[in-house]
Amino acid sequence: MALPPADGKQREVLALPVGGHTVVLGTAGGGKTLMAIKRAAFLAELCSKNERVLLVTFNKALVAYFKSISDNELKKVDVRNYHKFAIGYLNSRNLMGFNVIAPAYDRHRFTKTDLIKKALSELKSSDPSITTFQRDVNVFIEEINWIQKMGIRTLNEYEEVERVGRSGTRILRNNRKYFWAVLEHYMELRSKKGYKYDLEDLASYVEDELEQDTSNRYYKHIVIDEGQDFSPTMLRSLTKAIPSDGSIIFFGDVAQQIYGGRISWRNAGFKIKDIWYFEQNYRNTKEIAALGLAISKSKYFQGVADMVEPSSPKAEGVLPAVIKFTDEKKEILYHIERAKKEFATQTVGILVRSRKDVDNIVAFLRIARANYQVLHGDMNGFSLTSGISVGTYHSAKGLEFDTVILPYFTKEKLPDSERIIALEDEEEAMSEEVKLIYVAVTRARRGLIISYTGELTELLPTNENDLYQEFTI
Ligand SMILES: Nc1ncnc2c1ncn2[C@@H]1O[C@H](COP(=O)(O)OP(=O)(O)OP(=O)(O)O)[C@@H](O)[C@H]1O
């Protein structure tokens, strides 16, 4: 499959002089992935025999997708997710080992969550008078992840740092020392289990090592796609991974930031003169883009700095459908039947909020003997031809499908109740979750079907402006 040629501003970015730091912010479907691939290929052509280009993105499913769509353009480029880059670098410095990263999920080993739970419970019993320790463990997990992603190294630094958004008011400055105590105790327990890192603080170790590493850099140029979800410390480590005559280019869309709350690429220490903007939406039809735009203008979306508003795409299509069902089984069977018959020659994405719901849909797909792939972190290949892809909204990041089906769009599931607990604030959870549904909706090229039972989530804008057609089945 040949990639389309660059157009308008894309052409200007593709031809930018090579060197230094560049930031490109674009709307959903603005061609950031396309340009990341083309720029990486262009840079690889300029490299001498010992110089290399890294195209780095957030998740492994996206790496598999890049490789499938790039039509040989990436022959001379290393395509990796950040963690693979980090592990490779730490390995080259003899700082890795077997099972030294505390896993996020694992049925057989202690996870980061298990260890934070243990750390909190031990501190709670050692001093029951401290009320902060009585807060839900998810609040601590959330805060520890934030501290690590910011690359904060000391309690002093943590006590000084200014927070943006509502998270700033959630944790009083005076109480930060208790969160720090849980972090420190977690680190002790982690080390006792033989783990040196976890997925959030790995980047700080890479950054520190690169800071004092005077050897020649392995990559001359780094191209980052989906950069909005890289933590500041991941981005800083990448800026240190290139030589002084190398280059780094960041492609991202703040409206699609779905990991890490309100952490901004602006904390990454890029040295830039200008920011480039891709406003043109090349993916969605006018109707789908209009719904995406309405979501991005909703009250829950407020406070998103650097948001790039899309200009209306040219392709006309049909209005998205919003269908109400009487029960969930009927809902899923209806979608599977349509996907198998009506959309048989298309790519179809069935996307949901939780992994549990993915498993549920997979069980139905198996019974229906449908042709499907599950989107997940360990995908090696990616089928681009017709067929159904099932996954969470998170796993569909950066991808696109001819038709997107979004079942379970209910108040009960959106926002996710665990996020409300972790953030101790429904409004904050809504502001996170609305970005997820923005990502989900903007994955659709031509068809979008949303469905629910019971009550529709408030995250979907109301229909006064005829953004969608409503049905009951
Ligand atoms: N200049 C162009 N001409 C034709 N098609 C284009 C052009 N630029 C992008 N596209 C197409 O538009 C779609 C979206 O592009 P791409 O995935 O690169 O956008 P993106 O900015 O990475 O989107 P997102 O952030 O939503 O994942 C793709 O199918 C891509 O091939």
Automatic annotation (TrEMBL):
Biological process terms in GO annotation: recombinational repair
GO cellular component, one term: cytosol
Positions bound to ATP: 26-33
Catalytic reactions on record: Couples ATP hydrolysis with the unwinding of duplex DNA by translocating in the 3'-5' direction; ATP + H2O = ADP + phosphate + H(+)
InterPro entries associated with the record: DNA_helicase_UvrD-like_C, DNA_helicase_UvrD/REP, P-loop_NTPase, UvrD-like_ATP-bd
GO MF term list: 3'-5' DNA helicase activity; ATP binding; ATP hydrolysis activity; DNA binding
Gene3D superfamilies (UniProt xref): P-loop containing nucleotide triphosphate hydrolases
Entry protein name: DNA 3'-5' helicase
Native species: Paenibacillus graminis
